[in-house]
User: Fold this.
Amino acid sequence: MTSALPGDAVPAGPEEPRLRFAPAKLAWLDRRGSLVFGTLGLILLFAAWQVCALTGIVDVHISSEPSQVLREEITLFGNGTIWGPLGNTAAEVGWALAIIIIGGIPVGIILGRVTPLRQMADPIISILNSVPYVLFLPLIIFWFGLGETARVIVVVWAGILPLIISTTSGVRNINVDYLRVGQAFSASPLRVFTSIVAPAALPFILTGIRLAVARALVGAIVVEFFLSSNGLGYFVQNETSNFQMSAAMAGIVVMAVAALLLTWLIGTAEKRVISWSRSG
Amino acid sequence: MPETMNAPTPVVDPRATPHIEVDHLYLGYPGKGRSAPVIACRDLNFTIGRGEFVVLVGPSGCGKTTFLESVAGLGHVGAGELRIEGKPVSGPGRDRSLVFQSPSLFPWRDVYGNVIFGVQAQGRLDAEARQRVREIIEMVGLSHVATWRPRQLSGGMRQRVNLGRALVTQPRLLLLDEPFGALDAQTREMLQDELMRIWQESAMSRSTTAIFVTHDVREAVLLADRVIVFSRPPGRVLEDIRVDLPRPRASVVRRSQSFARYEQRVLDALYHGHQADRP
Assistant:
């Protein structure tokens, strides 16, 4: 057994004295800072809103106020009115995200690996990505009707492109040294793919999924504004046109919480899976 | 007469059968666009015996890395013949392992995972291979950090993982491309000693051939059974020097007189090569 050589870092053993590499004094703030101050920011925003409503700077009938929104929230969840629209939107987004992930990642990987295919697809993807998909909405309605199918298609359309683009660039930007290692050890193409290409592209794929989720949520709401009689988007629109501002705001808050949760979930996955890619 | 499993092995000096034959070999790269191809090595002729530790030295750009890569099966052969165990090289093979100049470790795998990649890639992962991975991690002195990720390791440690990954496939031919080139002088000397120890202690030195590329003359003399001196680009062989320093060698051999003489011989060869190239 060779012991560690000088110049090499060594993990501290039990024989060492208690090492005082004091974490910063407010260590918990370092770790929880974004949560603590993020919450504080939201509280300040709601407080300001409430103050404005109470002092009459804004008209409560038009803008509602946090206390009423909270009351409305309790009613909506209490009598279960919100579950219908929420479930509807969730189903839509869920199906669409499943299709986006199952379809988008392989397409991105193939485009990243097969140059002629990518060259063929590049202009198409640029066009689809830069022309607002909302423009195609009437066509999609014409082709697929007003049903669930049309709505899922729009959401997929809205979300899949960032994932494809991000995955493709992840696969293309693999450090050639990694591929040479595979080649030198005569790894099979399958092995190169599973052991090198996939893990190396993973950070890009997760970034793509994060972008896709954000876009898909927008897509879901847009599509509900246009061609739906249920879902959160429809709920908010409907309540607004009935001048039920508190209910509309309550719907928006539900959407915001759902979006935050999804983003947080993906962010956590990103941190877990790709701890290696930071300051690599 | 059919061969049987327990036929007595013929008594042949293994060093007498050439492991690698280099025959009027030209190496290079295709030119960009319509420009002429680039020649890296010109008319190389030599053989390398089984079990030899051969070090190629030469100025940077002399094509020594290109030669190593062509032996690894990564291309570059323009003309002539390059044979391993009598067969022309047509691609990478399981009999060879390459230790890269930059460690090229996978950042998403820990030390153990990186070392095991070699056998995994070759589809030879069994209990015995796993055991060997542990032994080799021990041998290169990294047992205490086997679960660390590359970004937590120092440059010297990364290079030892790189070496371990190559050793674990039990190559008959070990190719090392300036593996210590980017390290500081002290770490480099330690790793030279380490490699020398591994080479001499393990059974490798009898069954494995090594080609080591460097531009460090002292490193060359320390490690080599034979130093092949390359000229300035395009590389050709200036001199082929047998280093008869006794083995096992220890670190202190660097301070012996004969070491200094070999060092001078290599330096002279390099120097005269440069002189001869002058118009």
